[in-house]
Amino acid sequence: MNRIKAFITDFGWPRIIIALFLLGLFISAPIVGVKLGPSFTDVFNRFGQNAIMVLALVPMVQAGCGLNFGLPLGILAGLLGSTLAMQLGFVGAPGFIVAILITIPFGLLFGLGYGKLLNKVKGEEMTIAMYVGFSAVMLFSILWLVLPYTKADLVMGYAGEGLRRSISLEKYWAKLLNDFLAVRIGDFVFPTGLMLFVGLCVLFIFVFMRTRTGTALTAVGSNPDYARASGVSVERMRTVSTVVSTVLGGVGILVYQQSFGFVQVYDAPLYMAFPAVSALLIGGASVTKASMVNVVIGTFLFQGMLTMTPSVINSVLKTDMSEVIRIIVSNGMIIYALTRKTKVTK
Amino acid sequence: MPNETPLLSLEGISKDFYGNVVLEDVTFSVGRGQIVGLVGENGAGKTTLMRILFGMPVIAETGGFKGTVSLDGKPVAFKSPFDALDAGIGMVHQEFSLIPGFTTTENITLNRETMKSNLACDIFGSRMSVLDRAAMRKRASVAIERLGVKLDPDMLVSEMPVGHKQFTEIAREIDRANVKLLVLDEPTAVLTESEAEVLLASLRTLASQGISIIFISHRLHEIVKVADRIVVLRDGKAVKDVPTAGTTVHDIAKWMVGRDVQASVTELSTCKENTFLSVEHLWVDMPGETVRDVSFEVREGEIFGIGGLAGQGKLGIANGIMGLFPGGGKVTVDGKDIPLNDPHGVLNSHMASVSEDRRGVGLLLDETLEWNIAFTAMQAKGEYLTPVLGGLFKLRDEKAMKKLAEQYVKQLEIKCTGTKQRAMELSGGNQQKICLAKAFALNPRLLFVSEPTRGIDVGAKAIVLETLRTYNREFGMTIVMISSELEELRSICHRIAIVDEGKIAGILAPTADIAEFGLLMSGEPDDKNGDAA
Amino acid sequence: MTLKADKLGKFLSDNIVTVIFLALTLVAIPFSRLSGTYILSNLIDRFARSSFLVFALILPIMAGMGINFAMVLGATAGQIGLIFAIDNNIMGVQGLVYASLLGMPISILLGWFCGQILNRARGREMVTGFILGFFMDGVYQFFGLYVMGWLIPIKTGQVAQIDGGGVRNTLGLESVRGGLDKIISLKIGPFAFPIVTFAVIALLCVFIIWFRKTKLGQDMRAIGQEQGVSHSAGINVDRTRILAIVISTLLACLGQIIYLQNMGNMFTYTSQRQAGYFAAAAILVGGATVTRATIKNVFIGVFLVHSLYITMPLAGKELFDSAMIGQYMSDFINFGIISLALVLHAWRNRRNADLARAGLRGGAALAAAGGDK
């Protein structure tokens, strides 16, 4: 009994409620006439679509930099990657690979600057990260208008310049990963390629966290004074975590785009950090500790909820409450995590 | 004044923290207008005694205390410090509790401001009344005048010299309407000599106005100068309660540190003649433990002790050499210069340290024992890593880490459920052993150990000290041990340096007269002490 | 001479955010090709519109809680009040009073709730307040879209969504438009001065000045600087912090009502968030920091931010031949200036702490260090 109690306090009521809620949705789906096959297909697609951006948050949490509300910086690197690859005329798998190759140096650059900035400001890092992210998105909105993109399906039709609000990937690499080796079982489609790619990224972070640097990074988050006394440069580790997070955020948006089928620019990335942060927290992470398990469980629960709520609730209530539920759950989860006392109390 | 009821009397005060006795049958009293000097080493029980007097919640939470506290002859039991304040007891802390952006006046009258009520008070309560700044200023001036010092009532605390802050704090206490007793905890610690003189004078002024004072200080000459009576605490007992007249600094020093039993001098290893560690003009900016100008030499294979009272800078020496706080000067080990302000470089120079702040710096509380023990060696020396994919990159060698942890668990008798247990779940003594294991894992030739036995039980203490001795004897490890416990230093070290006010006051043999140690700690010049470095 | 230069340098570095903003505005004005009269009359209007909102941020800053991004909770309460005023067809200034009377208790309740949350998030009040605003958006949408029209019937057609479910996304406020501004409007040449609105703002200034002199105001200043010391002096820190947030939320509620009666229409589900972004930018542009804010900061900030809002889109159009660029530019400057202010403040804090530490090293250490060379 005590073990159950300990488990519940450790796991937290909000997560249990969300898990039960999702379970309830799956159970009631067939009853209200929602087909499970397509629903599961959707859940898996959206899981893969979002998982890498959630994963991108892990290094910074582990290094004690808190929740990376500055994820839009990485997303902007990804947007540069995909739009430039398209502009250069790459399509299909090579296009996607070129997009990643372009994303990585930009991610490194943004991450480095962002990391240096965060090292200068200890304290209200999360607020600053959030606003730096917002500013960068707005600055890039101007750039999307003035950068000399010329390809017809990228730029706005009537003016002939400035990127479109949302650019179709249909002729480029839409669903590239989703369709790769996809397995069809009845009306359920398993996006094998997408899952493999996510798996690869998870493995990368898993391995990274086990290197000397990854170990040092975790120690910095756990106790910066201990790490410093062991000869680790705390600031360097924090910067490393920011760089990894930013690059991975860029790759994450590329995966998102190919699954979604569109590249969204301008203010679309503005609030993209929030669902990722919520998903990580729903998976059981705290402001100071996060693991691969948190990423997988959290993304699955959160995206599962987002997918299932509209279809199930709409069939029952005949009204779309999913947006409201999303806002309350995701932000409620962040507040819960921010106000929760962390385990080590010095 | 034998016929008069003393203002404050403490009778038979005893207190233990879970069986660990801190105070035992302490009895003394403070008369009206009397200044009582309270002296004792760190851990003698001064702080706990004051906590009892002020009814700090921590006392009740840990099982209360035995004995009675009487004020004006009536027994009192304060439930919180606020009750004590209401009863007329004021406390002036070692750290300033002032609001930097407020003026002298605002600080003196903090939360006791003079107010003018208005209509809004009737609706929203008294917090809506407007402050009467003129009256507050007047009150502050009165309090300052009673102290007999010059303070600008309108100056911001953040712009004041240190001495003025101390006076502001005292003025705040005597501004209370019914203040009868003031407790001052090391009020002169941060003051210059001349500032301290002024403070002592104003304490006498206050006493002549009928306010009683308990004065805690490690500067014994101040005690002798200002106190009417002196109470010496040692190991939780009031060992002396004498009038100041006829008492010398030398006496007090002896009472303060002197144990009845002689230190059990164990067999010391023979150390080599060559100098292994040499420190010249070291300064370290460690808050609360500032090192000003320290020079000493340690021979190879020696156990060198550094003692002294808290806050005098002994801890700063190790932390500064290990590069954890900014510092300067010249440090050489085995003839090679050691880079300062570079923790990584130091760890690669055959040096290791065990921090005094076990939970804060010494451990990764949330991680496993394996991590705790192997991490430093991994980061500093690249050990416990295994190449994968043909040396493309290296990963943690979990197996080797486990082996290492198991080795030390066995060797140091660490009580745990396994090497995967998290460090926070261990007892203090076992945590300390983990810290030692972490340092040993670096195979150092020179080890700094700070406060190795602080807050751990007797059994663990013995093991920790024995382990240090073994490593010194068997592997010829040179050890610099920093401790507040003089007895402990005397039982293990070849030589002991005493640090006072950021400088080495003297270096003594462990067999030296106990009073000499006491005098060095109190910063008292002593002519007989000829062999000081 | 050098002393003067030093002073100027210090003034510039202390007010760098304001100076940058002023420079941007001065550049934008000529490019916008707007007449001085136009800009000025617009400024007067906007000044009356939004000053009150910005005042809501002063008290939490004083109490050491940073920028109260959760003021959107108060703005939401004000909007709820207005929805009911419109729905019950109460017009003019009566409508505004009605909305205030309804919004105030809601805002006090929300402020109390917010204070409780922020007390549990010490050291990260700002980010928590920000997310709290998002959270409240959800609750508010639930209320506006589902509770309204279902549990609480909507009486007026112009309030309801076209398909009948909940409150419209854009609500016309014609019936209360200018309810406050137009009671007495003084025309001087081309400029119209909404006297009553100005009087209300003046009254608020007097309140703030008076409040600083009260015991509660003094306590807020104290906890804003040193929570530990204040607590040991017997000040109830938690309660004082909650009071600061409650008053801030209440002022935000009234501020939003004043703002919307001037605008004349309301984006039911987004106006409150705009209020939060605007107020934070304005007070920081006005030279406030996370720990210090005065009435002067509010006025300078409102004046500067609006100058840029008026001129930037047109300047963008003139310079880049695209109004979009101007729009994005103002948004970028808005967010960027908040980032800059927060970063500078955090950076200065660290630098000052380092300087204070360096001062402690004392002469002996320095002499010893010098003696080595």
Most extensive chain interface and residues per partner? A-C, 39 and 42 residues
Helix content of chain A: 55-70%
Oligomeric description of these chains:
heterotrimer
Tally of separate domains of chain A: 1
pLDDT averaged over residues of chain A: 89
Average pLDDT level of chain C = 88
Strand order in the largest sheet of chain C: 1-4
Structure explained in plain terms:
The complex is a heterotrimer of chains A (346), B (533) and C (373). Chain A has 15 helices and four strands. Chain A is mainly α. Chain A has a single domain, classed as ABC transporter involved in vitamin B12 uptake, BtuC (Orthogonal Bundle). Chain A has a two-stranded antiparallel sheet with strand order 1-4. A two-stranded antiparallel sheet of chain A has the order 2-3. Chain A is globular, with a radius of gyration of 20 Å. Chain B is an alpha/beta fold. Among the domains of chain B are: 161 residues, P-loop containing nucleotide triphosphate hydrolases (Rossmann fold), CATH 3.40.50.300; 185 residues, P-loop containing nucleotide triphosphate hydrolases (Rossmann fold). In chain B, 34% of the residues lie in helices and 25% in strands. In chain B, the strands form six sheets. Chain B has a six-stranded mixed sheet. Chain B has a six-stranded mixed sheet with strand order 18-21-22-15-23-24, sandwiched between helices. Chain B has a four-stranded antiparallel sheet with strand order 2-1-4-5, covered by helices on one side. In chain B, helix 6 packs across helix 7 and helix 10 crosses helix 19. The two termini of chain B are 47 Å apart. The C terminus of chain B is likely disordered. Chain C is mainly α and 373 residues long. Chain C is 74% helix and 4% strand. Chain C is built from 15 helices and four strands. Chain C has a two-stranded antiparallel ribbon. A two-stranded antiparallel ribbon of chain C has the order 2-3. In chain C, strand 2 and strand 3 form a beta hairpin. Classes of the chains: A mainly alpha (346), B alpha/beta (533), C mainly alpha (373).
Short description:
Chain B is an alpha/beta fold and 533 residues long.
Could you give the topology of this structure?
The complex is a heterotrimer of chains A (346), B (533) and C (373).
Chain A: H1 2-11, H2 13-31, H3 36-55, H4 58-62, H5 72-87, H6 92-120, H7 125-146, E1 166-168, H8 176-179, E2 183-185, E3 188-190, H9 192-208, H10 212-222, H11 224-229, H12 234-260, E4 262-264, H13 273-282, H14 292-317, H15 322-339
Antiparallel strand pairs in A: 1-4, 2-3
Helix pairs in contact in A: 2-14, 3-9, 3-12, 3-13, 3-14, 5-6, 5-12, 6-12, 10-12, 13-14, 13-15, 14-15
Chain B: E1 8-17, E2 20-30, E3 35-39, H1 46-53, H2 57-61, E4 66-71, E5 74-76, H3 81-86, E6 89-92, H4 104-108, E7 115-116, H5 119-124, E8 130-131, H6 133-147, H7 162-174, E9 181-185, H8 193-208, E10 212-216, H9 220-226, E11 229-234, E12 237-243, H10 249-257, E13 275-284, E14 291-299, E15 303-307, H11 314-321, E16 327-333, E17 336-337, H12 343-347, E18 351-354, H13 358-362, H14 369-381, E19 385-388, E20 393-396, H15 398-411, H16 428-440, E21 446-450, H17 458-475, E22 478-482, H18 486-492, E23 495-500, E24 503-508, H19 514-521
Parallel strand pairs in B: 3-10, 3-11, 6-9, 9-10, 15-22, 15-23, 18-21, 21-22
Antiparallel strand pairs in B: 1-2, 1-4, 4-5, 7-8, 11-12, 13-14, 13-16, 16-17, 19-20, 23-24
Chain C: H1 2-14, H2 16-32, H3 36-55, H4 58-62, H5 72-87, H6 92-119, H7 125-147, E1 170-172, E2 185-188, E3 191-194, H8 195-213, H9 215-225, H10 227-232, H11 237-263, E4 265-267, H12 271-285, H13 295-320, H14 323-360, H15 362-372
Helix pairs in contact in C: 2-13, 3-8, 3-11, 3-12, 3-13, 5-6, 5-7, 5-11, 5-12, 6-7, 6-11, 9-11, 12-13, 12-14, 13-14
